[in-house]
Write a structure and sequence with these properties.
Helix content: 10-25%
Structural class: alpha+beta
Number of helices: 11
CATH class of the largest domain: Mainly Beta
Number of domains: 4
Oligomer: single chain
CATH topology of the largest domain: Thrombin, subunit H
Number of strands: 27
CATH superfamily of the largest domain: Trypsin-like serine proteases
Shape: globular
CATH architecture of the largest domain: Beta Barrel
Strand content: 35-45%
């Protein structure tokens, strides 16, 4: 009797186990289960997605002798005249309406230097658009549509922090101009930072098919919330290989906030811009060797290598050699993640930075403040009979360095803009630092103007330029 009871109990356990397995790997058995689809999500997000058409006039320098084997070597160095040719280029992208008044988020590279922008909704309606704010560092741009008071369908941003690898996502856009297209996939990776796409290399990776024309379109979760803006693909052929990247919604939200802000620090002249918190900290990756020497269980965080004299973190107690492990409770693994976490903190808020010092963990509080304008930038447009005529330069300070994305603490002069008509366009670009004219060091813009006037009288210009840590001398007679 006991043996039969045990056998019966075993059969029941097997049946229960088989039933549980069937529930985990069940196939559709009913009509309703067979018709499950993403259609409700698509129906919700599709009306808010727009096709973005941008036109821009491009001026190209053409020199009839540039390809000559002998003369070409001189023209490549910036000597001789050149002819200008203008042509109209069309850019195609996507965007998503985030406010019913006609506020659209897209990629900055889609609308860069555009003379005319048109947004087309899924129902065929067209609206002229103007760039309200373009942040090339994050590759996010905000457009405002001329709706004449008409209310438009819109989508809502949703924090990407809640996403997990394996979650289903949809990418919506206008690939190759074929019309609005929806593709599905999963979140392949989060916090992908081993790229060189923008200043903030921190992306959601997905295998949802993203192709040229999808740029600026939304990446949405199964609730229809926008968790990212599609911005780039990894491809050798130009088509999708299942490796696409989206800007997290947290970064997008920070740009939208800046676009709405009327604060003086969010503007330069009449144009708005994104002013992000400045820490004034220069860090280095924590290698396995460094992690072992510090007693860390694995490489993580950012080791402080240098601190700017005006850094708010310096006054809060941060020291060289400290390892920053988290910002506002979010772990940071490398410098890219540190920059991203800091960039999404609103100005004026207290930022909690967790550090590791001599084996002990502690937290310091730092106010999220904009980079200081000291010394004064004294920006000037150079003129006169010299090769730098048409170049706009500025004194280096933390605000200027942050805007141009350069790593500089000291004094000096940096190029902020080069006119297309200037001869300096052959050898200068924004971000270049002018170290010296002749043998005289340049400390500020007044130094540069004075030295250029003296060089004009001699008819020879010897310029020392620093770009990316490399110094080059250019001599023009």
């Amino acid at each position: 009797m006991l043996i039969r009871f045990i056998q019966l109990l075993a059969l029941m356990c097997i049946a229960i186990g088989a039933s549980a397995f069937a529930q985990e790997r069940a196939v559709p058995n009913t009509q309703s289960e067979m018709t499950l689809s993403f259609a409700p999500v698509v129906k919700k997000i599709s009306p808010a997605v727009v096709n973005v058409y941008a036109k821009k006039t491009v001026t190209q320098r053409v020199n009839p002798f540039a390809s000559d084997p002998f003369f070409g070597q001189f023209f490549s160095q910036g000597f001789g005249g050149s002819l200008s040719r203008q042509q109209v280029e069309n850019a195609l992208g996507s965007g998503v309406i985030v406010e019913p008044s006609g506020v659209v988020v897209t990629n900055a590279h889609v609308v860069k230097n555009a003379d005319e922008i048109v947004a087309v909704l899924s129902d065929g309606r067209q609206f002229d658009a103007q760039v309200s704010l373009s942040d090339e560092k994050s590759d996010v741009a905000i457009l405002r549509l001329d709706t004449q008071g008409e209310r438009l369908p819109y989508a809502s941003l949703k924090p990407s922090e809640g996403m997990q690898v394996g979650d289903i996502v949809l990418a919506v856009g206008n690939p190759f101009g074929v019309g609005q297209t929806v593709t599905s996939g999963i979140v392949s990776a989060l916090a992908r930072s081993s790229l060189d796409i923008s200043d903030y290399n921190f992306f959601i990776q997905t295998d949802a098919a993203i192709n040229p024309g999808n740029s600026g379109g939304p990446l949405v979760d199964m609730t229809g919330g926008v968790v990212g803006i599609n911005t780039a693909i990894y491809s050798r052929s130009g088509g999708s290989l299942g490796i696409g990247f989206a800007i997290p919604s947290e970064m997008v939200a920070s740009v939208i906030t800046a676009e709405k802000s009327e604060s003086p620090v969010s503007k330069t002249g009449t144009s708005k811009k994104v002013i992000r918190p400045w820490l004034g900290v220069y860090g280095q990756e924590v290698t396995p060797d460094i992690a072992e020497s510090l007693g860390l269980d694995r490489p993580r965080g950012v080791m402080v290598a240098r601190i700017h004299d005006a850094s708010p973190a310096l006054y809060a107690g941060l020291k060289v050699g400290d390892v920053m492990t988290s910002i506002n409770g979010k772990d940071i693994r490398d410098t890219s993640e540190m920059k991203f976490r800091l960039a999404t903190v609103p100005l004026g808020e207290e930022t909690q930075i967790t550090i590791l010092r001599k084996g002990e963990e502690k937290t310091i509080s730092v106010e999220a403040a904009p980079p200081p304008e000291k010394p004064a930038r004294d920006e000037v447009l150079l003129a006169g009979e010299n090769p730098l005529s048409g170049v706009r330069v500025s004194n280096i300070n933390p605000a200027v360095a942050s805007e141009l994305g350069i790593d500089s603490e000291g004094e000096g002069v940096v190029v902020t803009e080069v006119s297309p008509e200037s001869k300096a366009g052959y050898f200068l670009r924004p971000g270049d630092q002018i170290i010296a004219v002749g043998k005289d060091q340049i400390l500020d813009t007044s130094d540069l103007k004075r030295e250029l006037r003296q060089a004009e009288s001699k008819g020879i210009f010897a310029l020392t330029i620093e770009r990316g840590g490399q110094k080059t001398q250019v001599v023009i007679r």
